[in-house]
Design a protein that fits this description.
- Strand 3 and strand 4 form a beta hairpin.
- It contains no helices and 29 strands.
- The chain has a five-stranded mixed sheet, with no helix packed on it. A four-stranded antiparallel sheet has the order 2-29-28-27, with no helix packed on it. A four-stranded antiparallel sheet has the order 3-4-5-6, with no helix packed on it.
- The protein folds into two domains: 213 residues, 7 Propeller (Methylamine Dehydrogenase, Chain H), CATH 2.130.10.10; 129 residues, YVTN repeat-like/Quinoprotein amine dehydrogenase (Methylamine Dehydrogenase, Chain H, 7 Propeller), CATH 2.130.10.
- It is an all-beta fold and 388 residues long.
- It starts with 17 loop residues before the first strand and ends with a strand.
- The protein is 0% helix and 48% strand.
């Protein structure tokens, strides 16, 4: 049992699910429709589609000035900001200065947007595209994932170090307190009727179910050996089905000898897969393989498809044929590093983003891990994916 959470037992499904899997490659209904090199420097994490406002929000973190070297030109310092694009054609609308962080979310009723800045959450006006204020939360709070819920006009910001969701009022930005989640939270989903589910990034995986009216966790659905290190979560609200996209599953790697003669720890074998479970009681319906380690998931109720984006430059599309029948419809090549995604439910388009990198430098003479491959300046790219 984790903290004071109620641990829900995983019930055995009353109907044996039909399981299909196929290696579709790029053959399938989805294609990369547009590849827009929008440029600009600064790291980011999440990408967010405001379907009603027809805007795409991407946070960009500040970069320091770097002097020129024999291998690279000088780089000027650049402040953090939120880049705002037209959701239909990916043209740049403008940028909101004074903001950065892991991601952004918009609550349409209030007309306010929020970013998971560090160490505080930031608030901006959607219409004027102006920064409004920063909002501190609890001590040790580390903003990461972010989600807006128009059911109660609350914004949830997930914190790894405190294992909580900070709750903010979208109308005035007031900090309302936190929800203990009992694990390291990553992505959350809501049903618009008062329930929040959050997937856990812990090695053993799982989903926490929350009553947003009481701001209390009501259940935790553990995955056991079905999936761990889960970063993506999507919801079929009609059929009450969750899609948890996990980076690992299955057994352990045998302990390996260390240079000092001792044995190292056992390690989880990477085996990315989608854990498909009941949103009501957490019983696992089935699992399906993913083409890479996920960092984001989405579900389109119009097409009954779930999507998972991966850092190795792939996108897995899963088709829900019925409540017990799921199939890997397609594994689509996207762009290396395009690990997070967002869905435009109006058009059915999926958006991912990444940068291009140059060759990695050689490892140091004494051995060990060398520096990573450098980002090519101006290469930041947004991809629009859909059915032609």
């Amino acid at each position: 049992m984790r903290r004071n959470l109620f641990i829900a037992a995983i019930a055995i499904a009353s109907v044996t699910p039909t399981l299909h899997s196929q290696a579709a490659g790029n053959e399938g209904p989805y294609k990369v429709l547009q590849r827009e090199k929008v440029g600009g420097e600064g790291g980011t994490d999440y990408i967010f589609a405001d379907v009603e406002g027809r805007r795409l929000y991407i946070t960009r973190n500040a970069v320091r000035a770097v002097p020129a070297t024999d291998a690279a030109p000088a780089r000027d310092a650049l402040a953090g900001r939120v880049s705002v694009f037209n959701l239909d054609n990916l043209s740049l609308i403008g940028e909101i200065a004074g903001l950065s962080g892991n991601g952004a979310a918009v609550e349409p009723k209030s007309g306010h947007g929020f970013t998971s800045n560090h160490p505080d959450v930031a608030m901006f006006d959607v219409k004027t595209m102006q920064f409004m204020k920063t909002i501190p939360a609890d001590s040790g709070f580390g903003p990461d994932g972010i989600l807006a819920d128009s059911y109660n006009q609350h914004v949830y910001v997930f914190s790894h170090p405190t294992k909580t969701a900070g709750v903010f009022d979208a109308k005035d930005g007031a900090y309302l307190g936190h929800i203990d989640l009992g694990g390291v939270p990553e992505q959350g989903v809501v049903d618009g009727k008062g329930t929040l589910w959050v997937v856990m990034q812990d090695a053993e995986g799982g989903v926490t179910k929350v009553d947003v009216k009481t701001m209390k966790a009501t259940a935790h659905f553990p995955f056991g050996d079905k999936g761990g290190s889960c970063n993506g979560l999507a919801l079929d609200a009609k059929n009450h089905i969750l899609f948890a996209a996990c980076a690992t599953s299955g057994g352990l790697q045998p302990a390996q000898p260390l240079p000092n003669g001792t044995m190292g720890p056992q390690r989880q074998l990477p085996k990315p897969q989608m854990v498909i479970l009941s949103a009501d009681d957490g019983h696992i319906i089935t699992t399906l393989p993913l083409a890479g380690g996920s960092d984001g998931a989405a579900f389109n109720p119009k097409t009954m498809e779930a999507f998972s984006s991966h850092g190795n430059g792939t996108l897995t599309i899963i088709k829900e044929n019925s409540k017990t029948d799921f199939v890997v419809e397609q594994n689509l090549d996207t762009m290396n590093g395009a690990r997070t995604l967002t869905l435009d439910e109006k058009t059915g388009h999926i958006f991912v983003m990444s940068v291009e990198r140059g060759p990695a430098p050689p490892p140091p003479p004494g051995g060990g891990r060398g520096a990573g491959a450098p980002v090519i300046p101006g290469s930041f790219t947004v991809l629009m994916i859909g059915k032609p």
